[in-house]
Design brief:
111 residues, mainly beta, Thrombin, subunit H, 6 strands, Phage_SPP1_head-tail_adaptor, SSP1_head-tail_sf, Phage head closure protein
Length: 111
Amino acid sequence: MKTKPIPIGARSRRFVLELPLERPDGFGGVIRSYAPGPQLWGAIEMLAGTERVRADRPEQALTHRITLRYRDGVTGAMRLTSGLRRFAIRAAADPDGRRRDLVCLVEEVSP
């Protein structure tokens, strides 16, 4: 994934990395909730907006690229929040392997 470097000064948005908590629901499944984790500074860039049909209802999906300082252990089970906005992490990668940046491809989730 080739991206242009984003200067530290452009990372002016505060995000909270939310960590998943799973507990049994009593029927063999799990109930997932999220606990707030560390606060991170990053830059956000909108990539695309699409409309799809889910359960016979139109639904809008917005995808973004969020660039953070490198952090080990970020997975697709986690999510990022900024104010009232929530972003489900779909992929997270170190674009050049130098452990300087972490680029997350995310989808905005309705509350």
